[in-house]
Every structure is written in C-alpha cells, then in structure tokens.
Records
---
Amino acid sequence: MSAEPNAYAGHQPRMREATLLDRTIAHGGVMSIALFFIVCCLFFSVTTNAFLTAPNLLNIVRQSAPLLIVAAAMTFVITTGGIDLSVGSVLALTATLSAASLQAGIPWPVAILMMLALGALVGVIQGYFIAYERIPAFIVTLAGLSVIRGFALLITGGYSIPIEPTSPFVAIGRAWVFGIPAPALIATVVLVIAYIVFNETHFGRYVTGVGANAEATRRAGVDTRRIILWVYVLSGMAAAAAGIILAARLGSGSSNAGQGFELDVIAAVVLGGTSLFGGRGSLAGTILGALTVAVLANGLILSHLSPFFTPIVTGFIILVAIWLNFRLFRGGARGR
Amino acid sequence: MTDTSVSRVRMTGISKRYGALQSLDNASLDLKPGEVLGLVGDNGAGKSTISKVLSGAVIPDTGTIEIDGRTVSFTSPADARAARIEMVYQDLALCDTIDVAGNLFLGREPKRRLAGVPMLDKTLMHARARDMLSNLGIVIPDTRMKVENLSGGQRQSIAIGRAASFNPSVLIMDEPTAALAVAEVEAVLELIRTVSKRGVSVILITHRLQDLFLVCDRIQVMYEGRNVAERRIEDTNIEEVVNLIVGRKFAARSAGHPAERSVSA
C-alpha cells in the first residue's frame, strides 16, 4: 500500500539549528540601539575635536553613572511588566537626606547605609501594594513619585543643603581611582552584577517568567509575588545609590534634583529593546540605551548646539529605534 | 506503592465558588495507583477546576484532599509539586520569551555554585532537556529556541514533556491532545499507557471520547460542578458517555455508528 515511500523519507529536516543571523535578528532590540550608539559616537567624533578624548569619555560615564545604575534596576522592573515612576523622587529624597544627615554629624558610612535602607523601604512599601494588593504599578509609583518628592521638599523647605567639601563623602562623586572616576567604577560594578543576576540566576529567570506569563510561573511553583516585591526593592535601592552619588558629586543635596529623571531612565531601558509589556529584557541593551542618551547630551553641547536639542533628538531616536526594531528585526517582536 | 487498597488521591467534598458561579459543588475524585481516570463533562462542568485544585493552582473553599492516605492542604502549586503531582494545563502554561530548556525546568532549574553564589546551570539544563525530549520522542532541534517560535503541537509537546519528566506520582492532563496531529496523539496515548504501567496515576481530561476508550480504566462524568456518574471502561460505551455528559438521551452522531460500538457494550 505504500504508494510513494519517497514522499515520506529522505527529506532534510525542516527545522534547523539557529544560525548566527537568526540569533542576531532575535536580539534585534540590542542590535538597533548598538547601531544608533555607534552612529552617534562616529558622528560626534568627526564633527567635534573634543568628543573622542579620554577625559571627555570618562566624564560621560561619570555623569551618567546615576542613570546607568537606576536603568539597570529599572530593566528588572520593566521586564516583569511593571514600571517605577518614583525613582527620580527617591533620588531627590536620598540626596537631601544624605546631606542633612551629614550636617547632623552622622558618620558618612552610616549615612550611606541609612539611605540605601530608606530606598529599600520605599521599594518594600510600593512593592507590597503592587505584588500583594495588586494595584497597578503605574498608579502606586505615581503616588510614590508625588509623596516622596513632597517629603524631600518638606524636609528642606525647597532649599538645597550643602555638604562639607572636606567630608570623605564627596569622594564617592569626585574621586578618581586608577584614573577612573569613582561613580563610573560604582556603575560598572553595579552593571556587571545586574548583568549576571539578570541572565545567570534563578531570580533573573523568574523576573522574565513573571513578565512573560505570570500565571504559568506561579503554577511552576515560583512565589511570583515575592519576585515582584524584590524588583521594586532593587529599584528603590538603586535610586538611593544614585541620590548618594549625585549629592556627593554636586556637594549638596537638592530637593529639586532628578525632576524627570524617571523618564530618562525609562527611555534608556526602552531604547535598549526591553519591552514595556514585560517578558523581554536586555541589560546589554539598557547599558547601550543609557550611554546613547548620555553621548547625545554631551555631543550636542560639544557641537555648540543648544543643550535643549537633547530631549528633541532623544525623543526621535526612541521612536526610530523602536520602529527599526519592529520593521527591520521582526523576529524579536513576534506576537507583540 | 502499588498497593491498590490505598488511594493515591482521594478528594472529597470539594467546593469552590467564583463570585456568583458555584464552580465546584461537593465534588469528589478517587484515584488508585497506576490507574488512568478519564474526566469528562461539558464546558464549565468543573473538570479543569477540580484538577487545578489537585495541582495547587486553585485553593478550594471546602473539602479535603488525601494523598496516599495522608491529608494534605496545598496552599500553592509548589506544595503540589513537592507531593509529585504534575499537570499539563489546558493553556499549556508556557513562558513565550523563555527558551525550550528554560520552560521544561521552570521552577526547578538546576543550580551550580560560582564562588558560593547559586546560578543557573544552563549547560546541564540544555543537556538534560535534550535527553528528556528525545526520551519522549519529541523532535525539537534546538533547546535554545524560544517557545514563541514553535508550532502549537511542539508547544503542547513541551508542556507534556515538562509534566512527565520529573518522576510524577500523579499526572493530570487537561486536553493534552487538542493541538496535536494524528501521530502525536498516538504518542501521547502511548505515553499515558507507559507511565501508568510504572504506577503513575493519570487523570485525562479530553473531549476526544474515543481516546478515553483506548487508555482509561475508569470514567468520571461531571455536570455543573458535581459528580454525576462513574463507569468502569469495560461497562460502558461512547453513546452512554455522551448521554451522561449532556444529561439526557441524545442520539449523538459523534458517538459513531451503533454497530461498531456493540463490542464494548
């Protein structure tokens, strides 16, 4: 009865192992931002003399350290399908409180630990309402944005609090270690740890799982609520660290610091190819996204253009990068 | 444990209400070691809900669950997994953006320690994932592929492979063959026979009534959240099962030609 045996046998398998091109397309988000980053760097290298010099490049990393640190934590938050709008306010609160506590004579290491604990506490409170009370993250952290900024203003009365320039605290923002600025070193350490945690640990895997299919992850025996709580603790602590670094670099704590900072952070993360719908995150993309934003701001100033071009250009790049992502690198965008 | 006097699973008086809907109303379920139970009923009869109660995904309002004679109370799917109860969910419960191996091991990824810090052992995961899939005859060329890029049949195979590969004592399958092609359905039925011979108890929920007669020892019929009937497979036929499901005499064409069924009647 086997009329055409050859019709059943002798085929090449229809599925093949993923090739390099497949993998490139699957990481389309990172590829398109890498492209933008390189184009920006080349453009400013050619059009300005000062851009491609070691001091300038180190300065870029030094200034973007708070952005890089918070964007790394925000990648975890957004990958779970959440958002944290309160990071700019937490940055302002910890910047002012670290200045205030140094003024009150608290030793600087204790002040740093207190600020990190405060950031974690903010994260626990917001994370509790999001994970256990199931209030949308946008609403909880929008409330947080308002309340926390309010506390910062209330404590300072709107003035900025100076930090003694002789305090060892300012070294966190100003010191150079082995020819590298301290904030850049701190940011690098944070990024390396974040990269490993995101890609190589169970926690990172469950963060992606919660964003991809929270119910499936729960049914697999994972305590998804604890995972969600933890990502907000991480973003709270990262924002506190950013506040400390900023206060140390500027030598004062201002309650008006970090206005709109949360939007820069979210822009950097989204530029890097992390999906706002959750389930798809890339720390490599986030680093490139944050650096692109920083390079743009720096390069436009060096080109003697108005710094007010920065938000305009950044906005366009967000749109074009995401558009490229959808059109050119379709693989990664399937079903979303 | 092949002592058939003690039930592997005994669920009694299980009730669950979702707002206005009484999803389960004093339902019960009994399952012997190595037994294959077919759970049938119309949509909304409570089949999926009672199986989710057993897998820990749904917490019942009332009722008791005994596993091997010991009363248990599952507060999360992790508890049920610890009791070696595995389930293939109707919606498959896969994470689209995680790769094949990651989905197979979701929730119990192998650890390795790097400077004392526990990390995912991806090498071991992929190696064991390949073994698991080939043991079950599932063809997926690359365990690094993301699940979203697979076909419906492949996705279903992965959900089945995940539930069957971790030495379960109870295997619950909710519509496991819905997206499968003919040969793949045969493979799943064969898998059910194999694991039940090893002493694994199986609960099979399906609308393909002919499959029940190929693998099940017993059929339990549910109707609007209650148990309405129970039959040994050798004492019934498709026509009777159809009538029990819809709750009245029903000359169902899907029950097939009467002459072909008279053997089992």
---
Amino acid sequence: MGSLLLGVIAKPDLIVFLAAALVVVAGGIGVISYRNPVHSALSLVMTMFGIATLFIEQNAQFLAAVQIIVYAGAIVVLFLFVIMLLGVDRAEVFSRERIRAQRPLAAVAGVVTLGEILILGHATWATGAKAATGPVGNSSDNVFKIAQVVFSTYLLPFEATAILLVIAVLSAVYLSKRVVVNVDEALEAPLEVASSSDEESFDEVTTPKTSSENDDEVYEV
Amino acid sequence: MTVPGNWYLILSAILFSLGVIGVLVRKNVIVMFMSVEMMLNAVNLSFVTFSRMLGDIGGQVLVFFVLVVAAAEVVVGLGIIVSIFRRRVGVTADDLHILEG
C-alpha cells in the first residue's frame, strides 16, 4: 500500500488525471441529480473545468482555453440567463410520472450504454493507421499546428461554420420575436400570452384557426 | 505521458453515460439540454485522446468544429425553449404533451 502510494505521488500526471477525473464525474453526477437547475448549471461548469484540465494534460492548450471561454464563459451563462429569465429555477416534482418506472429503466439504459461503449472499446479499430492531417506539436506550438490545419485542409468546413453561426444568430432573433397569432385575442387580453397558466389559452393562442372560424368570431363580437 | 489513453476513454464513456441517464431521467428541459452538452464534452475528450494516441492534430481540429456547432445548437435550442415557455408556466417535458400524437 505504501509503495503504491509512493508510486502515485511520483507521477504528477497521474495525480492530475485522477483529480480532474474526480471533478468531472462529480460534476456530471451533480448535473443529473440536483433538483435546482441553477445548481445543475454550476455542476456543469465544474465538469467543463475538469475536462479543460484534461485537455491541458494532453497537450491541447488551445482547446482548453476555448473550452473555458466558450463553455464555462458563454454557454453556461446563457443557460443561467434562460433559467433566471423564465423563472424556472423551481425544483421539479419527481413524484408525478407519466411513464411508469421511467427512472429505473433510464438507469438501466445508461448502464447498458456504458457497457456497450466499454465492450466496443476492446474491439480492434477499423483503421489503426495514423491519419495524415498533421502531427501534434509539442506544448509550445499547439495553436500554430491547429491554425495550419484549419486554414489549409479544413478551410471549407471553417467557412461553413461561419455561415452556421450567422444562421444561428438569425434564428435566435426570429425565435425570440413575439408573434401574435390572433389579433382579436390580443386586443382582448394583451398580457394573457405571457401569464396564461391553463392549457386552453395555450391551445387557442397556438392553433391557427381557419378563416371561417375567425370570421364567425369577428361577426359575433 | 504516463497516464494511458485508455483511462481517458473510460472516463469519457462514463461521462457520456451520465449524460444519457440525465436526458432520460430529468424532466426539466433545460437540465436535459445540459446533459446533451455533457455528452458532447465526453466526445470531445475522446477526440483529444485519440488525437494524442494517434499523433494527429485532426482530432483537435474536429473538437474545434464540435465547439462551434455546440454553441450554435445552444443558441437555437434555448431560443426554442424560451419561445415555448414564454406562453407556458410549465418547465418540464411532461408539460409539452401537446406534442403527443
């Protein structure tokens, strides 16, 4: 036991890996087990930081920085904004189930997934050949190597991501636009859309009515 | 590198399975979305590990693209969630049973 402990301490890589793996798994369990979504989001940040540590451990410094900036800095903050904005930071009710025994079945499915991945990991790889995109640099020229490949071999996908981001921005703007379906309903209750709680108003607002129904209503009013 | 790549892959598999369980168990759609992000992170970790094991920078470039797609996905997904729940008070996937056939 003592020699094993000494062997672990003599390998700093192993210590970093074990600590980061602990952080990653603890954060992952926290995401799926905290009842409050805000706590889940903070656990997600923990997982992201653990993975960024593992990236650095594997000589992917650029990706580690991007991971922290994009995920922990932007995406999780976006999650938190939505949680706070919608006021959905209430604990969810676990007792009411629409599908019976969904939770045990989900746990079984997760364990089966893990087993499948681990079994497949023992299979021989389809192609064991080393790909020829470019060599991994040492710790000092990681950004240089990535840039070299992105701007030569993967130039077209890189430009496609620019188009993708523009489309994402446009769709976000369009989705967050407030659309009024029925003019007469909006005149009757302008704030009803935001605060309606029963299902009936939701159905009325969203389901498009045929023109004849609309005409009837208008004439009745 | 003293830590073998298999350990990273096993950790990645564990994290992916946690994400699968989260998507299946949780009913809050935002938390389900976070679990999807967790699965993406697990795959990113395995990409970087393969990049190191094969000595090829292509895996890291692929992670870069996955990050971009994940950012776009989060923007659109959260936009959809906001636009759905602005007219609803429910936060769980069960409240969306209007989608049932």
